[in-house]
Amino acid sequence: MDDKTFNFTKAKLDGLPLPVKDRETYFDKTVKELQLRITIKGTKSFVLTRRVNNKIVRVTLGRYPAMTIDQARTEARKQLGLMVTGIDPNKAKKAERAKGTTLGQCLEDYLSIRASLAENTKKGYRSMVNNHLSDWKNKPLKDIDRDMVAIRHKKIIEGGEAIAANNVMRCLRALFNFAHGQYEDEHGKPFFTDNPVTRISHTRAWAPETRRKTILRASELPLWIQAVEALRASDENHIDASPSTVADYLEFCLFSGLRRDDVLSLKWEQIELDTALMHPVIHKKQSEVITLPLSDYLVVILKKRAQIRVNEYVFAGRGGQGRFDEPKRQIAKVVKISGIQFSSHDLRRTFISVAESLDISTYAIKRLCTHSLGGDVTAGYIQMDVERLRAPMQKITDYFLKAMGKTDTADVVNLLKQG
């Protein structure tokens, strides 16, 4: 027997020399699978090593002298009892932790692992859990059953938030689906095999949802632009106050057709005024950068913004700090002045409706609106050169300018006979 194998005693373990490099391993004669590892810095740890299912498994039991030799031998025998039956103690310990995973822990794991999720999506998930499931955050997933889910869904609906109720349950369903694939027992089988949100589908309890279809009609555009101009005129400070920036933002949303967050996130480095191009980052598409043409009116807006540039964002925040946020208070002013109810997304929807009414090709509309072409087989053979999109973009701009009374160079189409 070599000098590294002996009966562990306090005197012998205390007298072990530091290794010359890395670490040294010593073996106990009493429990042969028990080892003591000592690092070059003098840290001593009890380790158990044994083959489990034809694979070497190493289990760290504890540090010496905090764990005594007798305690180490007792724990080693306990873990060996599992190992001889084919159970990996490391997996068993991990499984025990996973078994008690709470809703809050699952949410954080989900948001951490699904790194491609947009920040707004992550914020939305947290908001739904905090606002409607806060009393469940510390509750283990295994304790959330179908009855609880059905009752909570009904309660949110009865509180007058039908759409929120459905969204909260979609969020919860996504978390349980994630848990099914993420948390396993020591044999690699999922802990959470049932998704309690299926009760809502089984009982057909989902609240009815009507997709919003609001657009600005042709006859409303003059009133809308007048209200936007009135908002802009009320702004005497382009940096510290927001009305003028909001007015530019609203026009940019309408004339570009971009999503709200993609407009708010637009940076000057993504703008080419000399070539009339922009390269927005489409956050909904896993941060895809695309190139789009700028119509003449969009160039005018951007040149005006450039004169009062204060930071990297086209639509800078108050005091020049960061990017602008959703301007709900100022939009409410435009609504009050014009008498027209609308949201930022309604402006995008109006852009798309106008494009369709002007007989612009479906592929051009999809590209201008940053929609995916991936599901269309024919689209795979079409290379949408940016210059081919310039004429359709300008055509849409001309329509808006004519409808608003700013020019007479475009024919106004009666959208859905609603003008």
Structure, explained:
45% of the residues lie in helices and 10% in strands. It has 419 residues and is α+β, with helices and mostly antiparallel strands. The chain has three domains: 5-87, Integrase, DNA-binding domain (Double Stranded RNA Binding Domain, 2-Layer Sandwich), CATH 3.30.160.390; 103-202, DNA polymerase, domain 1, CATH 1.10.150; 218-417, Orthogonal Bundle (hpI Integrase, Chain A), CATH 1.10.443.10. The chain has a five-stranded mixed sheet with strand order 1-2-3-4-5, covered by helices on one side. Strand 3 and strand 4 (44-52) form a beta hairpin. Helix 6 (146-158) packs antiparallel against helix 7 (162-182) and helix 10 runs parallel beside helix 14. The longest helix has 21 residues, at 162-182.
Radius of gyration: 32 Å
- Sum up the overall morphology in one term: elongated
Order of helix and strand elements from N to C terminus? EHEEEEHHHHHHHHHHEEEEEHHHHH
Averaged pLDDT: 86
Structural class based on helices, strands and sheet pairing:
alpha+beta
CATH-level-2 architecture of the largest domain: Orthogonal Bundle
Q: Major sheet: order of its strands?
A: 1-2-3-4-5
Count of DSSP-assigned helices: 16
CATH homologous superfamily classification of the largest domain: Intergrase catalytic core
